[in-house]
Amino acid sequence: MRKPIIGANWKMNLSCDEAGQLYTKMSALSELESTVDLVVFPPQPYLALLSKMNGVAIGAQNAYAPDMFGAFTGETSLMQLKDLHVNSVLVGHSERRLHFGEDTDFLVAKANTALSLGIQVFFCCGESDEIRSNGTAITFVENQLEPLLHQLNQAHCPLLVIAYEPIWAIGTGKVPSLEEIEEMHAAIRALCSRYFDQASSDAIRIVYGGSCNATNAKSIFQLPNVDGGLVGGASLQFDSFKEIIDSI
Ligand code: 13P
User: Fold this and answer.
1) Which one of 128, 172, 229, 240 is least enclosed by Cβ atoms within 10 Å?
2) CATH number of the domain bearing residue 13
3) Residue 25 is part of which domain span?
4) What is the mean pLDDT of residues 91-118?
5) Residue 131 neighbours by CB under 8 Å, 6+ apart
6) How would DSSP label each residue in 74-127?
7) Model's pTM, two decimal places?
8) What span, in angstroms and rounded, lies between the C-alpha atoms of 244 and 221?
9) How far is the CA of 9 from the centre of ligand 1 (A)?
10) If you measure from the C-alpha of residue 95 to the centroid of ligand 1, how many angstroms do you get, rounded to a whole number?
11) Is the pLDDT of residue 15 over 90?
12) pLDDT tens-digit profile of 59-70?
């Protein structure tokens, strides 16, 4: 019922030439567009270049909340993304929460501004290993999402992708069990259905991220409440990323 979606989060990797070459190869996968939505999140300086190449959809790894231009040295505004035809943005990635102190109010404002501009939001959530070990992962993730869902305009549900990315699985090669992934995704879906009518909450896609690779992708993507993935390291090599896409 929901079209699967896979994001390639290149983080702060690749030279400009390498990014252009990888993007060209990924864009050749466009025959897949009828079965899966693909979004590439390159480093910010390459957005303008890739947007001119007219290939697969691109998104920004970050943006600043105001929907305007202004005196915010070093930031990229959501309006500037629109200007470049960048129609997706990552919000709430754990690396931004941890290293750049982005808190819930800031993230919810950013997500809502992006959505109101028609920009798709991948809103990331996920627990630390300590929280997973003490058995409160689901409550923790629900608490991360509730402020967003509380303020979300129901009409924006189709533009929202929730990315469940346990912090302890990111870049570590560790992955939760399939039961743990499905349990979390089902809990997130149940939470969404408390805020919105059935059709709207069904339109929200929930994807998994954290050491997703060519070996584990197929079994993860087959889970009933998993609508795709957000892939870091394995999206930096065309062959491994293509295998992941082929598993959907
Ligand atoms: P890895 O796939 O490298 O674990 O990264 C996941 C991630 O953070 C995607 O946003």
Assistant:
1) 172
2) 3.20.20.70
3) 5-246
4) 95
5) 137, 140
6) T--BHHHHHHTT--EEEES-HHHHHHH---HHHHHHHHHHHHHTT-EEEEEE--
7) 0.97
8) 9
9) 7
10) 10
11) yes
12) 999 999 766 778
**Type of residue found at 245:** I
Indicate if 156 belongs to the active site: no
CB 42 within 8 A of CB 19: yes
Confidence of residue 108 (pLDDT cuts 50, 70, 90): very high
How many structural domains compose the chain? 1
What pLDDT digit, counting tens, does each position of 118-130 carry?
999 999 999 999 9
- Does the active-site annotation cover 165? yes
Residues in the chain: 248
Which two tokens mark 22? 């990888």
**What are the tens digits of pLDDT across the range 160-194?**
999 999 999 999 999 999 999 999 999 999 999 99
Query: Ligand 1: does its nearest atom lie under 6 Å from the Cβ of 39?
Result: no
